[in-house]
Design brief:
Length: about 400
């Protein structure tokens, strides 16, 4: 993969006509090392967030040995890098064929579930294997999340208690898990989730081998500035202590966005300016899906293509429209950019390491697979020079 010192160097050398995606390995390394040092347990990278080979390679090199996977293809991806990496099948609804292939072909022993039917399916498909690790996923409040996952996944606490009892009878190890929703904006959500887990433990008198606090750890965006990650980890530690268990289960988490968001950015080109509307060559059917549907505002920066160009210091709020013929290819913003931006100017949009690549389509034939490595800093970061302090810097 071709490497550039900065986005500016890339643009001035390539002058790209199509959208260009950039990967920053150093950003991944900083985020992973911060989690390993500060989270009170093991880290499972959520592969769905960004399965690009360069990203997975850097995740592994930075010290992550376990992965949250949701499909056979994701298992194949991880196993192509490391046969010893532990894959945990944390999707609560799986086909019998996929369970069978995961267990017998790839040696996956860890499965998540939130219904009795799924539990039976796992038992039957693995021929009542005795070496399973089964996680019962509990539905918890997603009130502080930008993207609510509670409508689709998780068992009510009353149901989870019964599932935990059944799972314990037929597995080597058991776990309780929850997910506070994607881009969780307040640490209290983890305290509430752990409290729900504690109530299930009290009701069943069963202490699980694992407590999985899931993902949801936030990245920083112009319209979504979270507390430092230390606050989240401290809330988790305090809540686990409040369970007052004689021996604490092994704690795990499944970060995705927080580990890789800052590592990716997309360079787009302006096709047309219509007052405060910019028509660009990438959009919601490309890497910018999150800017349209959940309306996440990505940090934006106009890139100076040549030394003679003057960039206005006055900023204007713009909306974006993508290149397709679909009117839903719209990103509300506000994206703050210099007032004199015009056709053929380049813009870097940051924080696209999470889901930017995975959501791309070829709708209308607009598709770009131009990917390069850059070595400069992301536009926004939660990991400053001293990543142990998780400072917020721009």
């Amino acid at each position: 993969m071709q490497k550039f010192k900065s986005v500016e160097n890339l643009i001035n050398q390539l002058k790209p006509e199509k959208p260009v995606y950039c990967i920053r390995k150093n950003s991944i390394q900083s985020a992973v090392r911060y989690f390993i040092k500060n989270f009170p347990g093991k880290i499972l990278y959520a592969v769905k967030t960004n399965p690009h080979p360069l990203v997975i390679e850097q995740i592994i090199e930075s010290g992550v040995e376990q992965f949250d996977i949701a499909s056979i293809e994701e298992i194949k991806t991880i196993k192509s890098f490391s046969q010893t990496a532990k894959c945990s099948y944390m999707h609560t609804v799986k086909s019998r064929e996929n369970i069978k292939e995961a267990y017998f072909k790839y040696g996956v022993k860890t499965f998540s579930l939130d219904t009795k039917d799924e539990l039976i399916k796992i038992f039957e498909t693995t021929n009542n294997a005795k070496d399973l690790e089964l996680f019962v996923r509990v539905a918890v409040s997603n009130e502080h999340a930008e993207i609510d996952l509670s409508k689709k996944f998780g068992a009510l606490s009353s149901e989870a208690a019964g599932l935990l009892r059944l799972a314990k009878q037929h597995s080597k190890k058991i776990g309780l898990s929850f997910h506070v929703g994607s881009q969780c904006m307040h640490p209290i959500s983890y305290a509430k989730g752990i409290n729900d887990i504690g109530n299930i433990i009290k009701k069943t008198k069963i202490i699980p081998d694992y407590i999985n606090v899931g993902g949801g750890f936030p990245a920083i965006y112009p319209n979504l500035i979270p507390q430092a990650l230390d606050s989240y980890f401290n809330e988790i530690k305090k809540s686990l202590e409040n369970l007052k268990l004689e021996k604490l289960p092994e704690i795990i988490c499944e970060p995705g966005r927080a580990l890789v968001s800052e590592s990716g950015s997309t360079i787009v080109k302006v096709n047309l300016r219509k007052k405060q509307k910019l028509y660009i060559n990438d959009g919601t059917y490309g890497t910018l899906f999150d800017a349209g549907t959940p309306n996440i505002v990505f940090p934006s920066k106009m890139i100076k293509e040549n030394s003679s160009k003057i960039i206005s210091k006055k900023l204007t709020a713009f909306d974006f429209f993508g290149p397709t013929c679909d009117s839903m290819d719209y990103m509300k913003g506000p994206f703050l950019l210099p007032n004199n931006i015009k056709e053929n100017d380049y813009i870097e949009l940051g924080q696209l390491g999470a889901y930017g690549l995975t959501f791309r389509t070829q709708f209308n034939g607009f598709y770009s697979d131009e990917i390069y490595e850059v070595e400069d800093q992301p536009i926004l970061t939660m990991y400053g020079k001293d990543i142990n302090k998780a400072t917020l810097v721009a």
